[in-house]
Amino acid sequence: MCPPAPTESSAPRENVSLAPFNTLALPGRAGRYARVTADGQLVAFVGDRRRFVLGGGSNLVLTGDFDGLVLHMAIPGRTLAGEDAEAWYARAGAGENWHDFVQWTLARGWPGLENLSLIPGTAGAAPIQNIGAYGLEVGERFHSLAAVDMRSGKTVDFDRAACRFGYRDSVFKREGWHLTGRFVVTGVTFRLPKRWQPVADYADLAGELAERGIARPDARQIADAVIAVRRRKLPDPARLPNAGSFFQNPRVDAGTASRLRTAFPDLPLYPQPDGRVKLAAGWLIERAGWKGRDLGPAGMYEKQALTLVNRGGATGVDVIALMRAVQRDVRARFGVDLTPEPVFL
Ligand code: EPU
User: Of 141, 168, 191, 230, which one is the catalytic site residue?
Assistant: First the structure.
């Protein structure tokens, strides 16, 4: 990637359409919009009150116009920040495309992020919701991040403990900082282990590797298998606008899980280390009759019921109507509440 052009300015523009910047392609305008290409540009916005930090827009529902400042993160940079006997430390500028960054680490022979290939979005957003797929969460490969504290303008480092990662969760979400723009992530460093072990037990991934006749996959082969599975099941936002999984997989207590299993013997259950049990939201949505079903111009995808798609011309209002209808039917059938995964602006 090229370094920022010296003439490039972060001066905000007014009344900018955000439709091209969210993968659900929902309409909405920003009162003010600035494209941020260097850490130093952020200090100019320290006084701003209403702020939203936008990455790849792949986890966002625009509910209408936003009467504040949108900071669109485009800070570039991919470097080897360090190396020791145990690991390589690869750093990404917050604006780097996540998938391209993952492929870059693999091409250099640094394994560890392969399971997270083809996840849309930017590197800076990855730790905010602790992106995960095929048995791996980014928090497991995370070393640290740098962020600008928008109250003081100072740069703060967060190590792994400070991020308090959970399932699709981090301190940034827990404290609501992802909504207020309190800390703006400028760069993220990943710890990529030299004594690498494949993570290849996840059913879809194991099946794809078996079909390819690969018993002991290397990182590149895992990435290729993940890419193939995702292409088969998940719609490409460039062709069919979507925001990936629209709901989190709900976690219930063990008693509820076993009662549900008795009533629905083929219900998939994923026991968690804390004793709770994760359910497959896609399964619940499919069994509630929503797989491949539309409500107005929005619908639940025919190959993965957990993905909400914009069939053309949907607005945030349409998306919310569909979300509520799906939540209502899943609650009526299974007594389980579905929590949306994206951020609503
Ligand atoms: N299932 C159905 N019907 C469906 C979809 C799924 O019955 O329409 C069943 C599957 O057969 C399987 C189970 O539900 O038994 C789980 O499905 P899958 O393996 O496709 O994964 P998921 O739980 O639906 C999660 C993540 C995805 C991630 C995949 C693969 C969440 C909310 N979603 O989906 O993440 O790619 O696992 O690891 O945790 C995202 O967050 O945007 C995302 C795409």
Answer: 168
